Amino acid sequence: MQHSTNSTSRFGLARLTSAAALTVAGAAAAIGAAAPAHAADTGIPVLEEIKQCESGGDYQAQNPTSSASGAYQFMDFTWEYLSAGDGYATPADAPEHVQDAAAVELYNELGVAPWIPSAHCWVG
Question: How far is it, in rounded angstroms, from Cα 21 to Cα 44?
């Protein structure tokens, strides 16, 4: 998929679709992975909480019931809109620094909205 260099175009669909279209599955319990000792850090505390909730910090995590994968459990269709993930078919295929950059990109664009379905795990 060729990506637009225009941020508005790239995220236009994401803004217009329902929150469910950007849902990042909360799959930490289903995955049951522990954080690796060398886990990267985005420098954004809430993203670190989300990462632990979503995957236990496992950058190769794969949700068994959806296309969500990687440390932040990006759905494949969300991953396609993130320029940080260019060159990697799925989040789980991407190295840690690429997944972290994609999470920061999405967070800078939409805040925590994509991760609201798992908020029970990382809020407060």
Answer: 24
Residue 28 has pLDDT above 50, yes or no: no
Mean pLDDT across the stretch 76-81?
Answer: 94
Tell me the CATH number of domain 7-122, given options 3.40.980.10, 1.20.200.10, 3.40.1670.10, 1.10.530.10. Answer: 1.10.530.10
- Residue 5, pLDDT > 60, answer no
CB atoms within 10 A of CB 80: 16
Burial 19-30 (b: 16+ CB within 10 A, else e): eeebbbbbbbeb
- pLDDT tens digits, one per residue of 35-66: 344 456 899 999 999 999 999 999 999 999 99
Domain map (residue ranges) of the chain? 7-122
The two three-digit tokens of residue 21, written as one number: 């279209």
For residues 113 and 107, give the distance between their C-alpha atoms in angstroms, rounded to a whole number.
8
